[in-house]
Amino acid sequence: EILMTQSPATLSVSPGERATLSCRASQSVRSNLAWYQQKPGQPPRLLIYGASTRATGIPARFSGSGSGTEFTLTISSLQSEDFAVYCCHQYNNWPGTFGQGTKVEIK
Amino acid sequence: QVQVQESGPGLVKPSETLSLTCTVSGGPISNFYWSWFRQPAGKRLEWIGRVYTGGSTDYNPSLKSRVTMSVDTSKNQFFLSLTSVTAADTAMFYCARDSIEALDVFDIWGPGTMVTVSS
After folding, report:
1. Average pLDDT of each block of 10 consecutive residues along chain A (107 residues)?
2. 3-class SS at B38?
3. Interface residue of B4, B35, B44 to substitute, partner A, most A CBs within 10 Å
4. Sign of torsion, CA B90 B15 A96 B28?
């Protein structure tokens, strides 16, 4: 099973600033990497798949990059609704596995 | 707009069987993979497995010996059964559908149902 490790655990950012989140896979997952946003009491929301493709309806301030074992989610200018937990998900190998999440909090 | 909703008992006794239903509305259940996930409080999501509307299934090897999934297309529902539960199975359970845009990523999620294993 592929282990997904995210860093940092918590990221303190001011509204309007850029946030950069990292995700590392224990072995190559090619570009089969998705990012989800999760708010308290809510299910995950798909943001990015294929490492860099925004899902339908996701604002352009969200972008993803990387391949193989190293991936990045960037939020270019944080809005109030973006403060949440973000987790990565590899779906290259069965079963797909998730990172432990990065919490983006207001600085 | 397709929606999914989990239902089932919120409390299950140790050693018993956890049974959940996911009801699909607003769109077809056929020709999609439907998945179950769980998330213990403060922990990462875990993909339990998936069922295709043709009946085929794929289970997480870590749970395979205890999991059964099925689907009833006439009722627009699919199901999860997890046997011999322990306190370690206490979690929020979600059902979800594969995105039309890409297989094995999920853009339709239920709100989740909390299941506690306790006597």
Report:
1. 96 96 98 97 96 96 98 96 97 96 95
2. strand
3. B44
4. negative
